Amino acid sequence: MTMFKGILIEKDEAGYRAGIQEIDEGQLPDGDVTVRVSHSTLNYKDGLAITGRGPVVRRFPMVPGIDLVGTVEASTHPDCRVGDAVLLNGWGVGEVHWGGLAQKARLKGDWLVPLPAQFSPQQAMAIGTAGYTAMLCVLALERHGVTPAHGEILVTGAAGGVGSVATAVLAKLGYTVVAVSGRPEEADYIKRLGVSEVLDRAEFSAPGKPLAKERWAGAVDVVGSHTLANVCASTKYRGVVTACGLAGGMDFPATVAPFILRGVTLAGIDSVMCPRADRLDAWRRLGTDLDMAKLELISHEIALGEAIPTAAKLIDGEIRGRVIVDVNR
Ligand code: NDP
């Protein structure tokens, strides 16, 4: 019997709980590739899964962790060879299929992408799903024709994972970035990522008018709810708002005014089922358009044993940037 260490989430008569356990390899789910995991991360969704504060986990018991990086240990998939360094984001892993917050994972080879040569395993996880989603937002802005010459780009939740990476990438690409944050104590950190101005979250979180003064050429929103409605209302004629998150709420209490009177585009961003070609493109662009010095500023590493208390802090909005998890420590 081969055992490995991992976080296991259980739900039964005794309640919902997450703990570090020794797990029998025979319990791993079906899949054509077994990966020796080196690092995972904590994303907002992992925080919801571990704390049970959102209905993320749909099968029990569950190993959380929507991201992982590691080495192929066994494979019957034609594109994955033993020893390959691989990366995984999403595909329902950590929700319906055992995920990355453990020393081993068994997965579908079709879900895996090669670890890009530019990144160490730690750097890939410093980016993680949050950073790859930030890049999907930037790619959507570009696809809809937004260039630095069009004007300011607003990034909400700027001190968080998606917001930090989006800010760093946009700044490197030459955009003028304005950040929204509820943490004045992180203003210096956000400015170091390359923003020109930091606005108070409170300016966006209350119900607003259907249309406000036009300011943003584009936006990356991780908050949803009134914030997303107010961002759309203050976006310039033919501007583009990318919506990827719900940190402030799942609702969208808006009117159609920005869309039908100003031609604003609301672009939805999903990282989980995103097609492989788009993933590879996002990771390729992260390799060229994310400043590695800024990635170091954005991220810090913890041991697997610290992941459970850190998950609660993340959902409480107390974590800055990105958290890498060394699953073997
Ligand atoms: P983080 O917790 O790292 O960042 C979220 C940030 O949002 C916080 O740091 C905070 O920023 C801000 N925030 C938190 N609560 C509130 C609130 N009540 N009102 C306004 N702002 C708030 O999470 P991630 O960056 O990992 O994820 C951000 C969002 O994006 C989440 O909702 C997540 O589920 C979603 N997401 C979606 C993906 C997709 O595929 N569509 C993929 C990845 C993430 P500050 O302190 O600066 O205000």
Walkthrough of the structure:
This protein is of the alpha/beta class. It folds into two domains: 3-115 and 296-326, Medium-chain alcohol dehydrogenases, catalytic domain (Quinone Oxidoreductase, Chain A, domain 1), CATH 3.90.180; 129-268, NAD(P)-binding Rossmann-like Domain (Rossmann fold), CATH 3.40.50.720. 29% of the residues lie in helices and 28% in strands. The chain contains ten helices and 15 strands. It has helices at 44-51, 121-143, 161-172, 187-192, 202-205, 225-233, 257-261, 276-289, 292-298, 307-315, and strands at residues 3-12, 15-24, 33-42, 67-75, 85-89, 104-107, 113-114, 153-155, 177-181, 195-200, 216-221, 235-243, 265-268, 299-303, 322-326. The strands form three sheets. Strands 3, 4, 5, 6, 7, 14 and 15 form a seven-stranded mixed β-sheet that branches. α7 links the parallel β12 and β13. The model has no long low-confidence stretch (mean pLDDT 97). The site of NADPH dihydro-nicotinamide-adenine-dinucleotide phosphate has 32 residues, from α1, α2 and α3.
